[in-house]
From TrEMBL:
<dbReference type="InterPro" id="IPR052353">
    <property type="entry name" value="Benzoxazolinone_Detox_Enz"/>
</dbReference>
<dbReference type="Pfam" id="PF03473">
    <property type="entry name" value="MOSC"/>
</dbReference>
<dbReference type="InterPro" id="IPR011037">
    <property type="entry name" value="Pyrv_Knase-like_insert_dom_sf"/>
</dbReference>
<protein>
    <submittedName>
        <fullName>MOSC domain-containing protein</fullName>
    </submittedName>
</protein>
<dbReference type="InterPro" id="IPR005302">
    <property type="entry name" value="MoCF_Sase_C"/>
</dbReference>
<feature type="domain" description="MOSC">
    <location>
        <begin position="33"/>
        <end position="169"/>
    </location>
</feature>
């Protein structure tokens, strides 16, 4: 998987505030709106963005969420998205075409405007995605298809605006695509040997490294009912 010229135009940047969206449920900042002009990126992501529950969203390993707009046509073809839906339907911060979970790898370092970011993990969908999209099955479909998008950690703060380029600069783990690692994490189907490798991958988010460490020891059980079903 060698893509030395891999880059894309940034079609949109989307930020959001914490809101009470659903009665009896925790607040969320999954609803993002398009912003114009140059946006500052700090070590925790876009300065104008927010996450409601920092125990599972945001933080240095999940500072920015990037989603490929090409996936929207697949969701529409499958009847899970209304035709004509615009970017940020999944709460992503960055929308591009041409960069996917298949052609990007965990640990990839990319130039994002004047900032430098690194892919840390794929997205683990939760029940909020189902409520936000109006389709309760969406978190499960995210897992099934692997069309989850990915998160960046910020290596060097900077600023970026729509119309800028995002360009691959370094690829330390060419054998570990975002798709392969995310599928292994979400399905927990992986050999102990591969799980051990991922548990030691310094570029991978700490939480995922710990999870793969458990899998390497033969413990693949995980209760996902609260995350996917929304018992909060």
């Amino acid at each position: 998987m060698n893509h030395p010229e891999l880059s894309a135009n940034i079609d949109g940047i989307f930020l959001g505030a914490i809101r009470d969206r659903w009665e009896g449920k925790p607040a969320s900042a999954i609803q993002k709106g398009r912003v114009d002009g140059r946006q500052a990126i700090t070590s925790l992501g876009f300065s104008g963005d927010a996450q409601a529950d920092l125990t599972v969203h945001g933080g240095e390993d999940k500072a920015i969420h990037h989603y490929d707009f090409d996936h929207y046509s697949a969701w529409q073809a499958e009847g899970l998205m209304t035709p004509g839906t615009m970017p940020a339907a999944f709460g992503e911060n960055i929308s591009t075409t041409g960069l996917t979970e298949e052609n990007l790898c965990i640990g990839d370092i990319l130039l994002l405007g004047t900032a430098v970011v690194q892919i840390s993990q794929g997205r683990q969908p939760c029940w909020k995605l189902g409520l936000h999209t109006g389709r309760k099955e969406m978190p499960y479909q995210f897992q099934k298809t692997g069309r989850t998008g990915w998160y960046y950690r910020v290596l060097e703060p900077g600023e970026v605006g729509a119309g800028d380029r995002i360009t691959l600069a370094e690829r330390p783990n060419p054998n570990w695509s975002v798709l392969a690692v995310t599928r292994a994490r979400l399905t927990r189907r992986i050999s102990p040997e591969d799980a051990e490798v991922l548990s030691q991958m310094k570029e991978l988010a700490e939480g995922w490294r710990q999870a793969f460490g458990r899998m390497a020891e033969g413990n693949a059980k995980e209760d996902t009912s609260a995350r996917l079903g929304g018992s909060g």
